[in-house]
């Protein structure tokens, strides 16, 4: 009876049990196949050349891409990424350009403050002021400013532009250090004087200066400012003045003709601090006043005299 019952149960459940076992085996086999396939995909493929033992094959090493720089690009063509200025030995040859150097302000302590007054043909001979590093209308760059000449850069070459009536044989004058209880300043070197004998500006005859009124003199100087500003440098020496490192104005000292100071009520070592309402807070501030002074009907200045401010005002009798 027992055997008969078991055999009946076996016949009833055998087909169903076979189906379940097949499903489980299929799932296990499928899992193993997928796992094996994934392991193949994760491993990098290494090509082993023929004739080499397997031990010589190595896994590729990841390298960081080379950064593409300006040096790398220019190096491909035998060029340099930076432009090296040509070496200057001695004084370069004079420039063939039709340029006229009428004046310079030469500061050996801080060359960046130096500037030049240059006239170019394309500006109708008008004198403009250029700082070191600026480009002139002629396409040249002001490279250096010296006592009696400037160095220009044109087409990768240095050229010399000399002051009007200045020659290569003129001895250069070094700036003089001035030290006092108020400032440490550097005096620009004297400039060569070029005065037309027919002009009514600055002349070598001091008698004419003594006989003219301040208004007439200012009119003469105003005309000279338009035609030959360098000639006005004979009237006085202008020395940048500093107080605790701060620029406070221009110290004035008489040149060969001290009567000019007396005519305008100036004294030696007066510090010019203001002209027509413009405060001289930088050595270059006076550059913007040139055109204004060339046409002004009145000139009002303020000076610092022994620490005290003094105001002076004059009318201009234009020529």
Automatic annotation (TrEMBL):
InterPro entries reported in the protein's UniProt record: PDZ_sf, T2SS_GspC_N
Cellular component, GO annotation: plasma membrane
Residues passing through the membrane, by range: 12-34
Pfam families xref list: T2SSC
Superkingdom, taxonomy of origin: Bacteria
Localization terms from the record: Cell inner membrane
Keyword Cell membrane: yes
All residue ranges annotated as the Type II secretion system protein GspC N-terminal domain in the record: 24-163
Broad class of the protein's primary localization: membrane
Protein name: Type II secretory pathway, component PulC
Organism of this sequence: Beggiatoa alba B18LD
Upper classification of the organism: Bacteria, Pseudomonadati, Pseudomonadota, Gammaproteobacteria, Thiotrichales
């Amino acid at each position: 009876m027992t055997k008969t019952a078991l055999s009946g149960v076996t016949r009833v459940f055998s087909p169903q049990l076979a189906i379940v076992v097949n499903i489980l085996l299929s799932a296990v086999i499928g899992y193993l196949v997928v796992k094996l396939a994934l392991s193949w995909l994760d491993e990098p493929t290494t090509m082993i050349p023929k004739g080499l033992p397997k031990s010589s094959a190595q896994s590729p090493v990841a390298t960081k891409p080379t950064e593409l720089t300006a040096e790398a690009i220019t190096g491909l063509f035998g060029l340099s990424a930076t432009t090296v200025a040509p070496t200057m030995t001695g004084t370069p040859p004079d420039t063939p350009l039709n340029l006229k150097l009428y004046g310079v302000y030469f500061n050996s302590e801080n060359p960046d403050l130096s500037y030049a007054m240059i006239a170019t043909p394309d500006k109708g001979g008008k004198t403009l002021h250029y700082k070191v590093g600026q480009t002139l209308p002629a396409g040249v760059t002001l490279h250096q400013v010296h006592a009696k000449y400037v160095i220009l850069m044109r087409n990768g070459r240095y050229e010399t532009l000399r002051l009007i009536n200045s020659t290569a044989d003129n001895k250069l004058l070094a700036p003089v250090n001035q030290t006092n209880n108020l400032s440490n300043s550097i005096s620009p070197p004297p400039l060569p004087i070029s005065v037309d004998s027919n002009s009514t500006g600055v002349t070598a005859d001091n008698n004419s200066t003594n006989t003219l009124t301040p208004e007439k003199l200012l009119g003469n100087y105003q005309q000279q400012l338009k035609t030959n500003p360098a000639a006005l440098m004979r009237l006085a020496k202008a020395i940048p003045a500093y107080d605790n490192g701060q620029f406070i104005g221009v110290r004035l000292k008489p040149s060969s003709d001290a009567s000019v100071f007396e005519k305008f009520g100036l004294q030696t070592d007066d510090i010019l601090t203001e002209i027509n309402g413009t405060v001289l807070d930088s050595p270059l501030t006076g550059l913007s006043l040139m055109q204004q002074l060339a046409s002004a009907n009145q000139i009002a200045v303020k000076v610092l005299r022994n620490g005290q401010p003094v105001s002076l005002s004059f009318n201009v009798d234009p020529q």
